[in-house]
Amino acid sequence: MTKNPEVESHQESHQEHDEEWFSQRGITDERVIEALNEIPRQSFISLGDDEDGEPLPSSALPPLEVAGKLLQALQIKEGAKILEIGTDTGYLTALLANLTDEVYTVERRLPLAKLAEGRLEKLGIEGVEILYGPRLTEYALNAPYDAILLSAVAPRVPTKLKSRLAVGGRMVVPIGEGDKNPEIICIRRVDEEVFERQSLGQLRFSSKLGDILVELGVADRDDIELAALEADASGKKLGEALLQYAQIHERDLVRALAIQRGFKLAPVDTLLKISDHELAYSVPRAFLEHHQILPLVIREGRLSVATVDPDAPAIELARILDATDVDIYLVTSAEFTRIWDTILEGRKPRANREDNLKSRVEAKFERILRAATRVNAATIHIDNQPQGSRVRFRIDKELREIREFFLEPAEVAFLIEFLKMEAHLEVLEQQIPQRGRFSWVREPVTYHMNVHIMPSIMGEQLSLQLLSHGTESPTLEQVGFPEDIIETIDELFKLRRGLFLLVGPRHMGKKETLYALLRRFAANETLKVAMLEEDIICPIPNVQQSLIHPEVDFGYREAMYEFARFDVDVLGLGEIPNPQTALEALNVARRGMMMIGILHGKSAHYVLRGLREFGVPAEALANGVTGILTQRLAPKICDGCRELYKPHSIDLKALFPNGAPMGFKAYRGKGCAECSGTGINGQVPVLEVLPMNDPLRRGITGDEPEETLRRIILASGGDTISEYAVRLVREGQIPLEELANYIPLKPE
Length: 748
Known about the structure:
alpha/beta; 29 helices; 25 strands; single chain; 23% strand; 7-stranded mixed sheet
């Protein structure tokens, strides 16, 4: 914490302020004032360093008074252990190290982490441990901390970080979203369980653009204030208003932004001269157009880009192209157009360029999708690892690694950015999970999939749920329903009213069954059939399929009543998410509409009990529910290698304590090329159809306990799900060991 020669060598260009200046801005801590005056900001915001004149990556430092208020709120004592989240270029880190001798700082962006490391080392600042890459999570090992500072704006106070505070410790977090100035929140840990929260008000984190323009002598204060007022009134960006109302030349605005953000400036001819004109073809054109950014060249792992937007995702583009650092050249609109036309419009990429990243990734991704479709994979997992990726398919509930596919780190980064763009996700967001939907046309096939991107210390991980590949929904027969079950369902549906429930655990094929049921209804041209869901898996012939949008007040409840007014005869619900939605569905069904909905739960009696316990009136259930179909999935024995065998007597006794059914037999798959030697090929539904009969109605309205309802269901006739599973074993459709999931009959 003593001054060193490196820091002192920068003092000539470093402006110091007296205590009165700081006091007027609410900063009174003498140690903080000393640190602010000692640490040279120019070392972290200048356009070049002392050796090679290269600019810093895209970054803006908080104003001096903001930095002071953040540090003062932490109340740092000598010898305190500090954690900083968001090293950035290292300015706040240097200030913290001036106040104590043990600072741990976390930076997720590798280029900035390395840059900050070099800056701090150059200034001779010690006592700082920068955690990045594989070491990101090490901060947890050094807890508890006397103070924690989040240098970047967060949407909320991180709960996990609060637990890392020592008793009496303080955490300062800037909270905000969008362009609003963040609110500074100070959290103090009173004891193990109690935390105090205090707001320090809103603070501006970056230097004002207008101040820089005034200092450059290209605008006066009145013009800046007028432009700011017009920007507020019109909703325009300040830069646009400055060009229009303050008569600022775009070139001067670009200069001011470069100073504010630490960007580079260069003539267009120079940029075109250094450019690799093939590089831009390695990035989705939609990404470049949307963000108004162009990659120019990569030299020794350092990417140079040109952009008109100071907030363009330059670091993200560097990650796509596997660069470790980035130089940002800010240009005017006319200059950007000239560069764009020269690189992308003036010529075409070489057709035989084998190392074109875009072509490589699209070709590999298409091969992965075709292979997954061929083996009926439910999900594709692309596990991001430092040396590349591992591709795995979920087939018949198990993950299987597909070793023929391998994506290099740059290819994984490109694929994730491509999917984010196509699924309308936030391209720059890497800290929270994101989900979306994506359809990809590759003639003659269209692939429909759910995209799920999950952050991790090894990079973003990718999961793709295959919804369909352009085919129509299957029929009940194609799903695996036998003729007698279909006849029972048809008999129930003759009423064409009430609520029919599809129940069972998640991921058991209920959505596919719902599609098949609606397709069966829609074959009757006298009926109008519709479907409500969050994700459309595939088209259903003659069914009006609609997506819910709760964010605009078109959730399941609103949509059900709207379709009731729309004169729909049969309405399918992709999910009944809660008891309130179930009650609303029962109310709508009372108007004469047939409702078919998915409700997640183990069994029929479990679902009935749960709905009653959560407030759905017993009378509404008894008179509104027409039937319940319970469905699970079991692995299907391969038809190509199925063989009859005699099970061991111990296995039979465990399954059938009172003796196996007369004539019982079992089959197994011995393994063949068709099933890759597993003996299993696909899945088959295990079913139970329960009509709502009089005994069951009396049990529901009489508020009978769950065990009584279960006995009523067992006595209601028809195969229980356990009996149906035995039937599938005897028919050679599922392995004997699957019966352990259904029998012997025991209360659940």
